[in-house]
Amino acid sequence: MERESYIKFNCRHHVKEISFPAEIDTWLGFGNALKAHKLIGKIDDQTGYGNISFRDRNSGDIYISASKSGTDDTYVKSHFSRIVTWDAEINFVESEGAMPASSETLTHLAVYEALKEVNCVAHIHSEYYWNMYLNHELTSNLDIEYGTKEMYFEVKRLIEENANAGTLIMGGHKDGILFWDENIFRLKKTISRKMFKI
After folding, report:
1. pLDDT class of 45 with cuts at 50, 70, 90
2. Backbone phi, then psi, for 55, in 5-degree steps?
3. pLDDT 10s digits, 26-35
4. For 38, 65, 83, 85, which has the most beta carbons within 10 A of its beta carbon?
5. Pairing between strand 80-87 and 92-97?
């Protein structure tokens, strides 16, 4: 399994207490269900894989599970960062919270940029399903690595051209699969239909 805790973008993080929308508890439950199925988890005590994010419908704020938060058995609020701003052209992300934003932040932001109706994204890992769906579902270029601005622009382009896909196989990120939808209930339904009931 490919390691993904290494942040490849220029990161400016502010360690501070942040507020969360009421839906955070639903998100913690969703993330922990993915962890229970090992779709998000850890390789070792220092290296995690997979992450989730959501956009607050009211404020428009985007929250994402933090770098290395997959290494713990369950998610808690302090495992989420709020995105302050970003600029993919210069490979930059600014975040705030107890921990810095995930190494896959730019990929999640590409989805939100491409589809304004999307409010939740899950990036999971599964060798079995990655091999099953590779080039059978929407698949990104095999030469583009995770966490890079090149992946940002690749994902944004593909999703803009295939708005209803809901699933993207990350060709250059072995085992990585991206899901997105308007809300968490639809997202859970898609993952349950294609993989495990969560």
Report:
1. confident
2. -115, 125
3. 999 999 999 9
4. 65
5. antiparallel
**Strand segments (E) across the chain:** 10-15, 41-44, 47-49, 51-55, 62-65, 80-87, 92-97, 120-125, 167-169, 176-181
Other beta carbons less than 10 A from residue 59's beta carbon: 10
Average pLDDT of the residues of the chain: 91
Question: In whole angstroms, what is the distance from residue 188 CA to residue 171 CA?
Answer: 23
Greatest C-alpha distance within the chain: 43
Query: How does DSSP assign 101-112, residue by residue?
Result: BPTTHHHHHHHH
Question: What is the DSSP-derived secondary structure letter of residue 91?
Answer: T
| pLDDT value at 175 more than 80 | yes
- Here the tokens at position 198 are 């969560």
Q: State the average pLDDT over residues 150-163.
A: 95
